[in-house]
Amino acid sequence: MEVTVSWNGPTGMSFRAQTGSGHMVSMDGAPEGGGHNLAPRPMEMVLLGTGGCTAYDVVLILKRGREDVRGCDVSLKAERAETDPKVFTKIHFHFIVTGKNLKPGAVERAVSLSHDKYCSASIMLAKMAEITHSFEIIEG
């Protein structure tokens, strides 16, 4: 896996990243840090990637278990250290899973398997941050 990150120039703190799979992503800093707030912050991208990684796992595990899953949203709320390096210290994942007759045990199992075994991003972050998760099921 490869990515290339390039600074957009001397008038701000925005960067562009190109993924090995050929996608472009923009990142920017906060105005107080010289950015223009035109794109997500790099640490927000870390959370975005982690959310995508774990949501992917949860949907795949539920589908493989023949559950009728029709939607999966996950919100991540993180706390960071107050001093540099401002690493994540706590991250809470809240899943909202939609489907027909979903079994709470199956959803809980999928979330746990993602957190404990499959999601590389959350497992890596768990080495420095306290990770918690919750879920709710919506019939539909």
Tell me about this structure.
- By secondary structure, the protein is an alpha+beta fold.
- It contains 3 helices and 6 strands, in the order βββαββααβ.
- α1 crosses α2 (104-118).
- The termini are far apart.
- The mean pLDDT is 96.
Brief overview, please?
This protein has 140 residues and is of the alpha+beta class. The protein is built from three helices and six strands; from the N terminus they run E-E-E-H-E-E-H-H-E.
Highest-level CATH class of the largest domain: Alpha Beta
The CATH superfamily of the largest domain bears the name: K homology (KH) domain
CATH architecture of the largest domain: 2-Layer Sandwich
Distance between the termini: 37 Å
Mean pLDDT metric: 96
How many domains, in number, for the residues? 2
Radius of gyration: 17 Å
Strand order of the largest sheet: 1-2-3
Tell me the series of helices and strands, N- to C-terminal.
EEEHEEHHE
**Beta-strand fraction estimate:** 35-45%
Q: Can you give the helix content as a percent range? A: 25-40%
Flag low-confidence runs.
none
Count of helices?
3
Largest sheet, strands/sense/barrel:
3 strands, antiparallel
> What is the fold named in CATH at topology level of the largest domain?
GMP Synthetase, Chain A, domain 3
- Strand segment tally: 6
Q: Which structural class do you get from the secondary structure elements?
A: alpha+beta
